[in-house]
Specification:
about 180 residues, alpha+beta, about 55% strand, elongated
């Protein structure tokens, strides 16, 4: 899986679990304004490699796939102008990880590793109105695939003097693919 696929799958999962349309689901730092409520903002951070990468064999062009096990922290923030709606959206998201939806969207390529922060409701004042705000953090594990062009050695020539039992021989070795 490529990193862009991870973002797409997490977004699709939130869309299906929450029932929100795509224009109500944002990634942290996305340039579009967050003016449609209710909405969920997703932040993927703390990417870290766990263990050593697994390399796959070279293909005919000399490209090698390297697969690494990784984890990342996903922070889900919900916003709403309706009382308790933000925390209810995140509770629904939290409990959806126990359903078959997880397998349908993630297809075994992404796994909920652990819950880092349960759903917390933090209403805040915006001007003279209270905005519902809720947070939930989870850690996911997944496999990331990188492709490396290592190239192929097509021909190796070795010229060396070999001494054996007092005799001197010069031989050339050629390895071709």
């Amino acid at each position: 899986m490529k990193l862009a696929d991870l973002y797409d799958r997490i977004r699709e999962y939130v869309r299906q679990a929450s029932g929100l349309e795509d224009d109500h689901i944002y990634f942290q730092g996305q340039s579009s304004p967050r003016n449609l409520k209710p909405c969920i903002v997703i932040s993927l951070t703390s990417f870290k490699k766990i263990g050593q990468p697994v390399t796959k064999t070279l293909d005919a062009e000399g490209k090698q796939k390297i697969v690494s096990s990784m984890t990342c922290v996903a922070s889900f923030k919900a916003f709403s102008d309706t009382l308790h709606e933000a925390e209810i959206m995140l509770h629904d998201l939290y409990h959806s990880f126990d359903t078959e939806l997880r397998n349908q969207v993630f297809k075994g390529e992404i796994a909920l590793h652990r819950i880092l922060k349960e759903v917390i409701a933090i209403p805040k004042a915006i001007d003279s109105q209270h905005e519902g705000f809720s947070v939930f953090d989870a850690e996911f594990s997944f496999l990331i695939t990188h492709e490396q062009n290592t190239g192929i050695i097509e021909k190796v020539e070795i010229s060396e003097t070999i001494e054996h039992a007092g005799q001197e021989n010069t031989e050339e070795y050629t390895i071709s693919r």
